[in-house]
Structures are given as C-alpha cells and as structure tokens.
Amino acid sequence: MADLETQNNSGAQQGQQKSVSSCSSFYADHPRRSLAEFADRVWLIGARHIWIPGEKTTVKRVLWTVVFVLFWALFAYGCVCEVNSYYLYQQETKQYDVFFDSLGFPAVTLCNLNPVRLSAFESSDLLHAGELYGILNDDLTLNEKVITPENPLFADIKSKTDFTDEDKEKSFNWEEFQLRAGHQLREMLKDCKWGIDTCSSDDFTPILTEMGLCYQFNVNKTWDANYQMFVHRRSYGAGQGYGLRMLLVTQENDYVPSLDKKFDTSLESGFKIQLHDPEVPPSVSEMGVGLAPGFQTFLAVEKEDSHYLAAPYGSCKDDEGYTGNYLKYSAPACMLECEADHVAEQCKCRLPYTPVASAVPDSNEICSVQTYLNCVKRPLDTLRGCDPSTCPTPCHMTEFKASPSFVRFPSSLGKLALKDQYGDLDAGQALVVSVFFQSLRERQIYQQPIQQLSTMLKNIGAMLVLLVGATAMTLFEFIFFLCDLIFLGKKRASGIELDSPSQKKAEL
C-alpha cells in the first residue's frame, strides 16, 4: 500500500514537471500559436479577430488589423499629449466671492507730502541738512529764492544761519531729525472716528518711510469685542459708519518750498494714504493714493485674498523659511531688505527707513547726509529698489483695493462750522478722508494646476478603455507574456533542453 502511494506521488510530480515542460515547449516552439492563444484569452477587444491559428489572411482580418493598429496609434498619441500637457505645468485662476459677518480692517499708512517742517530746523540741523533740503546754498548761506522775505519764517531761519562752533561740533542723526522735524500727527489730526468711537493720534504708530515720517493705523493688535483674542481691528458692517474717518490739515505754511531739493520730495500739498496688510510694510510713494486739501475723499475698499502656485507651476515665494526683518515675506519687505543690502555693501550704512542689512551685519549706523549725497543717492538712482525678479510675489497675499471718489470740502456753511469748532483752522488746508468697506465680501483668488498627475492617469485610463477596450491589467498581462517568450527563447538559445512533443509522447 505504501509503495502504491509513493508511486502515485512520484507520478503526480512527474505529471507536473511534464505539464510545465510541455507549456515551455509550447511557448518556445510555437510562438504564433501562443500569441493566438494569448489574444483569445486576454481582455483585449479585436485581438482574437487578428491572430487566428490555421486561418488564411482574409479581408476581415486585414480590416481588423487596420482598425486595431489605428486605435492603438490614437491611444499612443493621446498618451503623448497627456504627458506633454502635464509637463507644461499650466495653471488656471478661479475666483470666488465669499461674504462674512465681519472683515479684518486694513492697515492705514498716512504721510504728509512734505517730509520735514521748516520751523523745526535748528542751527545745527541747517548746517548739516540745509543743503540737502534746498534751504541753504552750497556756501551755506540762506537760499532766498526758496525762503523769500515774504515767508513768515524768513527771519527765524535767517537768524539760525549764523553758525557757531557749537553748531559745527554738534552731532547730527538723520533718523532722529526726521522723527523730530516731521509733521506731528497730534497737530495735523483735528478729528478722528473709528465707527462710532472717537480715536486720536494715540491710536496711530509713527513709522519712517521713503517719504519721511508717516503714521499707521491698525498695525498694533488690540483685544477683540469679547476680550478673548488679541487681533487687528475688524469692521462689522459696510459703509462709512463702520470705517475710519479723519479730518486733517496739511500745515502748508510750514512746508519747505524748494525746487532744488536733493532729497526726493514733492511740490504738491496734501497727503498720501496707503491701505495694506497690517503685517506688510508700506510702500506709500509707489502705492499710495493722493489726498488733496479742499476735498473729502471716500475710499471704498474691497478685500482680496490671493493664493498662487509655487514652482513648477508658478514663480511665487512661500513664507516657509523666511528669516527676514518683517513678520512675513512680501514683495515690499523684500524690496526694502534688498535696498538695505545694496546700500550697506556700497556705503557701509543704512537709510532711516530700511532695516539692518543681513548681508552686512556692521551696517547698523544711519547714513549721514554727506554719505547720502556722495554715495547713497547715486546707487539708489540706478537701483531704486531691486530687480523685481529677486522679489517674487508671495504665494499667499492679502490686498485691499480702494475705489476713490471726491466731493468739495468744506461747503460755505461748513467753513463757518469749522471756524466755530476749531477756531483758527484754515479751511483751505483742511481735508477729510473716509476709509470703509464697500461690502463685507472677500474676493478669494486661487491658482490651480490644469493638469495634475491624477487627472493625467484618469484621462489615459479613459482612452485605454474607449479606444482599445483594455485595462491596466491587460497591459501587465501582455508585458508578462512577452517576458515569458523572451525568457524561454533565451533558455532555448543557451542550450537548455526543453521537452519536445516526441519526448512527451514517448513518456506517455
């Protein structure tokens, strides 16, 4: 009984070996028949009509072959197009309008067009900076073409040009001078309203910019209405009643009226105002809106929140890894840092409104007026910031787009009311500006890839089923079939004996 079971087991093993040998022999000796069997067995529409063992070539087989090859060629062409479209890294922009119960209010940066007050000059200031602002001639005498005898401050300025040895020895700091000599907001701001609440110059933060001394509203965080979070101010409604309103005077009588200024200033009267993200430094000279005396300016604001794609789809720069001088990366911050690096490398100092240069650590000293005239101004005239390609757009940015409108201010009766309330206020130098949201709508802009990897694979799969009636598994089957043919063919070529049909019959 045991011998019989042993014989049966050995017979079964021999049967399996013979089956494998016969299969190998079949694929090695009859590749055409194996291809026909594969075409009949695999899920590939049309293949069984082409590879028919023993049947002669007919019109039907020719037509099926032409159709089969044509659709496979179309499939290959479609695959090439999909892959090419993917590696073009094209993007599309989608826009959504989302309404909220409240919106974060922008930072408001306000600058007088005149950088320094004439009455603020001391003798030592005139000695060091009088030529820069066009008040003195090259020989340090008073420029009476600028400060004419008709000027109410003529006598005062004239007396200050009698320089003493103490004036010559006194040090001069350009940053300190701009903070002291710039127009003071407590003198310019006559009335201020934030919604229904009263505000004052204490709610503003002084900042030095390329326009001199400016003031910012809503850059410092405060407690929210429920005293739960430390946030920037928010507007809970649309219209003037939920925004910022300021009554300002230009103080034109204290302007420096020079046509020969070597420092970039303006001959106009009024202010410039910029609305921007509270965490982004201002660039008032480039992005500010002008405010003219004798008018009330309405700035209806719309908020935009933009999301851009980084490489390879776009060229924006992400905040990740930013280690600069500001709260987050932005194009204005990058431009200021780049300008600071450039001036520090060329002149070994920094301008009053720029941060300390990261590339030159020992450049924290404020540039003197002479250094500005001899070294800084020349590179700034040629550079004026940096190449925009070095400061790409951030991948996420918040912008506040203002639509200005104007009315004359004050009216005839309004002049009387202003005089009664503010006394000696010169109505010709007064202006009003109102900043408010046009609606509590945030426009959200997203850049998205047109062709993603998942989309490409989905389209290729759809073409595979539609054109050739196959699936991804069909392709794997065909690949393994070719591997079998190649592998067995190599074994046959290397001299490894495969069981032939005659041997198989003899064994049987």
Strand content: 15-25%
Q: State the low-pLDDT regions, or none.
A: 1-29, 500-508
Tally of extended strands?
A: 16
The mean pLDDT is 81
Radius of gyration: 41 Å
SS-based structural class?
alpha+beta
Distance between the termini: 24 Å
The protein's oligomeric status is: single chain
Report what the structure shows.
This protein has 508 residues and is an alpha+beta fold. Helices cover 37% and strands 20% of the residues. The protein has 15 helices and 16 strands. It is elongated, with a radius of gyration of 41 Å. The model is unreliable at 1-29 and 500-508 (pLDDT under 50).
Features:
single chain, 508 residues, alpha+beta, five-stranded antiparallel beta sheet, 15 helices, 20% strand, elongated, disordered N terminus
